[in-house]
Known about the structure:
The protein is an alpha+beta fold. 37% of the residues lie in helices and 43% in strands. The chain is built from three helices and seven strands.
Amino acid sequence: MSNVKKAMLFLSVACIRSTALAAQEDEVATAMRNWVVAYCSNDVEAIAANYHPDARLWGTAAKVRADGQAAVRRYYEGTGANIQSRCAEIKDSAIRVYGSAAVNTGSYEFRATLKDGSPRVPLARFSFTYVKLGDRWLIVDHHSSQMPSQ
């Protein structure tokens, strides 16, 4: 095979790989948007459905880690107890895909109205680790912490 043909084959394979990787990154971005929609709905079942049964969560308001989907559900029940409405807006995001696993890191702004009507708008940083289960990307590890003031 000539060097030109080898180079063209390499570029073709690289292009196919790049397109497949971009498609997977889009799927992970969709999974992140699904989490945001569920979080903004304040529907604990919908939020928990985004997590793998064996998920781990270090939530922004957590003193202990939530281990497993049931504990994740309880975390969101607890954090939503004093909230009239809540939402999250992704400020920046960096997705990396490694086969059937992916990591998404960035920052988000939480907007909440407490039941007494007072607003809360903390900025936080996140790391979501996903695994692909069937045709869905599920959160297997989620860490969130309030952004330092400086």
